[in-house]
Design a protein that fits this description.
Number of domains: 2
Shape: elongated
Number of helices: 3
Radius of gyration: 19 Å
Strand content: 5-15%
Structural class: mainly alpha
Largest sheet: 2 strands, antiparallel
Mean pLDDT: 86
Number of strands: 2
C-alpha cells in the first residue's frame, strides 16, 4: 500500500468511526527509529544524498543551491 492510497482510504473511512479506528490500529505506517527514511532534507523532503554534518539536514542538491548564501566557499 502506497502512502497516497493510505491517505485516500483514511478520507473515505472518516464517516465510519469504528472501522476508522480499527484501520488506524492495523494499517497505519509505523514511526521509524532507524534507516534511510528517518533523515530527510528539510528543504525538499528527499532522503537521498543527505548531509547532516553541522546540523545542515539538507540533501546534496539543495546544499549546492544554498551553500554560498550560508557562507560556504567552493575551492578549486
Amino acid at each position: 500500500m502506497t502512502a497516497s492510497d493510505y491517505r485516500k482510504m483514511l478520507a473515505q473511512l472518516k464517516v465510519k468511526p469504528a472501522i476508522y479506528q480499527k484501520f488506524i490500529k492495523h494499517n497505519a505506517p509505523k514511526k521509524r527509529s532507524c534507516g534511510i527514511n528517518t533523515k530527510r532534507c528539510r528543504r525538499c523532503g528527499t532522503c537521498h544524498g543527505h548531509i547532516s554534518k553541522y546540523g545542515l539536514n539538507l540533501c546534496r542538491r539543495c546544499f549546492r543551491e544554498v551553500a554560498v548564501k550560508m557562507g560556504f566557499k567552493k575551492f578549486s
